[in-house]
Amino acid sequence: MVKAISLFSGCGGSDAGIVAAGFDVVMANDLLPYARDVYLANHPSTDYVLGDVANIKSFPAAELLVGCYPCQGFSQGGVRDPSRKINKLYLEFARALRAIRPKAFIVENVSGMARANYHHLLDHQLRVFRSAGYRVTADILNSADYGVAQERRRIFIVGIRGDLNEKFVFPAPTHGDERHHARTTIQDAIGNMPEWPEGEFYAREFHWYYLSRDRYKSWNDVSRTIVANPRHMPLHPMSPPMVKYAHNDWRFSHDGPARRFSYREAARLQGFRKDFVFPDTESGSLDMRYKVVGNAVPPPLFEAVARALPAVWD
Ligand SMILES: C[S@@+](CC[C@H](N)C(=O)[O-])C[C@H]1O[C@@H](n2cnc3c(N)ncnc32)[C@H](O)[C@@H]1O
What we know:
The chain has helices at residues 13-20, 33-42, 90-100, 119-131, 186-190, 263-269, 286-295, 299-307, and strands at 2-7, 23-30, 47-50, 64-67, 104-110, 134-142, 153-161, 242-246, 249-252. The chain has 314 residues and is of the alpha/beta class. Strands 3-2-1-4-5-7-6 form a seven-stranded mixed β-sheet, sandwiched between helices. Helix 2 (33-42) links the parallel strand 2 and strand 3 (47-50). Helix 1 packs across helix 8 and helix 6 runs parallel beside helix 7. Bound molecules: S-adenosylmethionine. The site of S-adenosylmethionine (SAM) has 21 residues, from helix 1 and strand 2.
């Protein structure tokens, strides 16, 4: 099997995708103890290094490097400050790239990075990866176009080592109108799950910010984006639809029961397999479960990108 190293690995969404595409993840890394616990419960053979990536002094050999450095600086939910230290973690990825010299790499990040005020940071990333000797391509993909029951637009940066003389072409969308498959709906993804999974969903009140926009989609729709903060998690379709009263003022159309998606439902809407395990460990609070799920890259989307890599492995 072709060996891969993963950085900023979280609970392993991206890595579940590359494993499904046939790679062997020999090393992974993240700061979050619960991300490590979930990862190892599902991929026990990976060497998961817990701690700041900056403290990793050496890396094993690998042909593929993947990494989804954090995105707070660019995301809708985060503080948008291009100068924040968290926005420089791609330099750690570049350090690993120079040390490992894999044949290819894949990076994923929020699509906001392509917005005008951050473009210089995106351009800098592309320049740094090119100067490390890679032919680099970037594009924004929507997970719903690749069979995931969720609208989630993310930027992917893919590099192929220059000496291999190969070019990466992003995979064409497979799901949607006039495509090979219909889009996967919320019903397809979670229709068989319990309607009222006590203890597995965030049950606090719907505060004013939550009600400032429409959080509802029906069973036959694709889900809104799954986020890491449970307070902002979209509504389960058993909830009443929302209606607009005024600018930033949405209300439930009737008084029936309403709830957010549970973390397990969120994981299915991210495209995690049914048998994906969330262990009960000390660090596994409800908020933390939502966080590692919402931070993840949808495995089927990462798999589609990994499968599109040219055959450079022999
Ligand atoms: C977008 S998430 C990655 C999600 C992961 N690829 C997945 O698919 O599940 C970014 C991750 O980077 C981790 N992180 C942030 N700063 C870090 C650092 N200095 N060293 C290692 N990991 C870090 C965060 O804890 C978070 O889990």
